[in-house]
Amino acid sequence: MACPRNIMLLFLYCSLLVLVTSEDEKVPEEDEFQRGLRIGIMKKPKRCPRESKSGDMLSVKYNCTLVDQTPVLPSSMFSFTLGEDQVIAGWEMGLLDMCVGELRELIVPFKYGYGELTVGDQLPPKAPLVFYVELLDIKDGEPKPNTFNEVDSNGDNRLSFDEVARYLRKEGIPDGEGDESHQVIINEIFKEEDEDKDGYISHKEFQGIKHEEL
Hints:
Blueprint: H1 2-25, E1 38-43, E2 56-66, E3 71-81, H2 89-94, E4 103-108, E5 129-140, H3 147-151, E6 158-159, H4 161-170, H5 182-193, E7 201-202
Antiparallel strand pairs: 1-4, 2-3, 2-5, 4-5, 6-7
């Protein structure tokens, strides 16, 4: 009669072992500061005639610490264009729809900050950061160049072979030999861009700056 009892004890032991092993092998919960960007509004003016948007030139005052309040960057002023990848992703997302005079606290996980970058003893790798950012001013950003209009010299809303050739000369791109000649370059451009093969690149067909020459 001892065997069944031993078998039962062995079964219970194995079951407990599986449970303990399963608990040990669970992926630990992600640190709260790594889950995502956290935005806190510390101060907001009563009147807000204009909110920040992508393409705006923003002037801000900010400082930066680790989550334990260890200083990383001293208080500074900075101007940049929102939406142009001039700042970290945490700022790109965290400073949208902001009013002049508004103060925000941004808790930025490393994936939206400086990643695995290390700067001396101040910025360890994969460090979540806390920014206090005050928006001082909003201005219209610089308009993006319209390459299509620059090439379309006669304004007929389509690009001809001659117009592209003139643009290459205007931009000072040398007319080399072989694969570097304007003839070969333009043929390649039209091969890729002129979808209906009518000898012109329409505004619809034009996909922006696909080539260094355009």
